Amino acid sequence: MAELLFQEDDYLNNLPNHPIFNNNNNNNNNKNTFSIINQNQLILSAPPELRLISLTNYKTQQTQQYKLLIPRPRSALPIKPITTLTANPSSRLLAICSTDQVSVLSLPRTEEHSDSSTQIECQTTKIGAEDDQDDRREPITKVLWHPWSHRASTLLILHSNGILLEFDVSRDTLNPTQTIDFNSPYSLLTESYHHHPSYSQAGIASTEPFECHPSLISSFQQVSLNSSSTKKSLIGLSKHPQRSSTPLGSPKASRSKPRLSRSIPPSAKNHRSTSQGTYGAADRASSTAVSLCFGTGAGDWGPLTLYAIMLNGDMYAICPYLPKNASVSFFLSE
């Protein structure tokens, strides 16, 4: 047993010396070079290359070779430097994200790791609509795969303006299946909203009629990390009037009733609560989305709870959040 542990430590200690980590650029402090470990393979972004080694092969053979992942078509890759690599739960798809674009690459099968070639061609697809005006794209702050999506193919893309887009990349890579606006949490996004200029900036196609109407999860509540803002209620349009929109943790949460408001398009200017029921933040930081994650756990509500955090520390929780094409765990269906 001790010998096995020693071999495991030796294998990990030698890994940083593998040639895959060699930097071909003159700048040794290139911040765009990083790697992720995805099950039994290590994937590294070393611009302009995507590199891969099989950790299983390396552990047994101590091989010093790595393979290059060649996207096909090459034009499907984001133009700007890659900021994030995220593998889906089945380890078959890799989301490649820059500051304003996302592409999905099909990872090679296990048997392709063992052949003698040094390059592997991988089908790659752009996600979202094309936008010729790059400077109008809203920055992307987080990319996340839903753990319970059918075929592990549901990708969530959070933009800094609070727009969350859900794509089922196995069916439609242009149009989102669901859309959430964290700055208007109860407002269903209508077709007129879909054609709004600010909406198109988030990367949603508007050239064809939107057949699948984006849906919004209505059990949307705010957890504020700012004590002064815990007294505020979120205002929005709810499909379930019996649900409360009072911030979580409030002693009156169980007795409060949600207030209704009309759906409004996004505005370039910050706006305050009004007598008409519209809601917006006076502080720009409270309307700037920073990150996104799912809860943890197995056989409980953890993977069905989606958390988002804003720049000022406000946190939002949506439960249950299911993708449009979901594969629900057997434990929850009992």
Automatic annotation (TrEMBL):
InterPro entries per UniProt: Nucleoporin_Nup88 (IPR019321), NUP88/NUP82 (IPR037700), WD40_repeat_dom_sf (IPR036322)
Pfam families: Nup88 (PF10168)
Localization per Swiss-Prot or TrEMBL: Nucleus, Nuclear pore complex
Keywords: mRNA transport, Nuclear pore complex, Nucleus, Protein transport, Translocation, Transport
Transmembrane domains' residue ranges: none
Region: Disordered, residue numbers: 234-281
GO molecular function: structural constituent of nuclear pore
A Gene Ontology cellular-component term: nuclear pore
Record GO biological process: mRNA export from nucleus; protein import into nucleus; ribosomal large subunit export from nucleus; ribosomal small subunit export from nucleus
UniProt entry tagged with the keyword Transport: yes
Predominant place of localization: nucleus
Protein's UniProt name: Uncharacterized protein
Organism listed in the record: Puccinia graminis f. sp. tritici
